[in-house]
Specification:
It is a single chain. Strand 9 (about 215-220) and strand 10 form a beta hairpin. Strands 6-7-8-3-9-10 form a 6-stranded mixed sheet, sandwiched between helices. A 4-stranded antiparallel sheet has the order 2-1-4-5. The termini are far apart. The protein is of the alpha/beta class. It is about 30% helix and about 20% strand. It has a domain at about 90-160. It has 8 helices and 10 strands. Helix 4 (about 125-130) packs antiparallel against helix 5. It is globular and about 65 Å long.
Length: about 290
């Protein structure tokens, strides 16, 4: 799909003709992303909705420069700069894998850790985030919970004045109070500085007033491209004016769609209905002494 140059230049995040496969030389493995086209204006806050495996994380990782796409007429830009050849400054990516890194699970005091990544240069924002996320500077990184470690990650990632923020499920470990305070901070920060947020999540309660746009991905493509929120046809009210209800409706449709593909030959999920035991099942029954 061709996108005119004016629309491209006005977009803070711009993606055109993006297809990506983890195994490009294996035709039996479908691409993770198929013909993605995306334009997001400066200052927008977009929620990505989709089932597990829809391609949300892959898209965010490509935008973050963590995966390379080198074929075709793909065009991926942030702040009008090619993310593969001239990555722009001011972009922050926060994903779930950070908390599992052995380096950040070592015996280091949080205050020293934040200073080591430049916390002293962003003192006012760092201190504001320490209060919002309820972080103890005397914590030892190896001795805290996953949720507490996630809070430290967020302080680290957000204390600089980012222009574009890519969030991949990083609020999943937070309790509801801290998450609510964080979302209010992100919304205020976006509004005051014109910063842009693209946020993939599976937790939708408390999000109704956060996004400016909502998008729906299914099996590597957009079913609903980023659309201004709240939707115009829902403005008069009704049962589907909540983002949670919209997400639930979309995800149910995704499951029905996938099950229809399975009836046409796609690999089945769930329990196997074959009445004949597998060889492994027959083997292990010999050593089942629970009866």
């Amino acid at each position: 799909m061709a996108i005119d140059s004016a629309e491209q230049s006005q977009s803070e995040i711009f993606v055109e003709n993006l297809t990506f496969s983890f195994l490009p030389h294996n035709p039996s493995v479908p691409p993770s992303l198929v013909d993605i086209n995306l334009t997001l204006p400066k200052g927008s806050r977009t929620i990505l909705i989709g089932a597990n495996g829809a391609g949300k994380s892959t898209l965010l990782q490509i935008l973050a420069g963590k995966r390379l796409v080198s074929h075709g007429d793909t065009n991926v830009k942030i702040k009008d700069r090619d993310v593969f050849r001239q990555y722009p400054p001011g972009v922050t990516f926060l994903g779930t894998e950070w908390a599992m890194n052995p380096v950040v699970r070592g015996d280091i005091v949080v205050a020293d850790f934040l200073n080591s990544v430049g916390g002293y240069r962003h003192k006012s924002r760092r201190d504001l985030l320490l209060d919002i996320l309820d972080v103890d500077l005397d914590w030892h990184m190896h001795a805290i919970s996953d949720g507490e470690r996630r809070r430290v990650q967020l302080v680290m990632g957000l204390m600089g004045e980012w222009d574009v923020l890519l969030l991949d499920e990083v609020t999943v470990d937070l309790d509801v109070l801290v998450r609510d305070d964080l979302l209010k901070f992100l919304k205020r920060d976006s509004e005051e500085r014109g910063a842009t947020i693209l946020y993939a999540t599976h937790i939708f309660d408390g999000l109704n007033d956060f996004p400016t746009h909502v998008a729906h991905m299914r099996l590597g493509s957009f079913v609903t491209p980023p659309t201004p929120w709240p939707f115009e046809d829902l403005a008069a009210g009704g049962p589907n004016t909540q983002l949670y209800s919209i997400a639930l409706q979309w995800l149910r449709q995704d499951r029905v769609h996938r099950q229809e593909l399975e009836r046409r030959g796609r690999k089945l999920r769930g329990a196997r209905r074959d009445p004949v035991p597998e060889d492994s099942e027959t083997f292990y029954k010999k050593y089942d002494y629970s009866h």
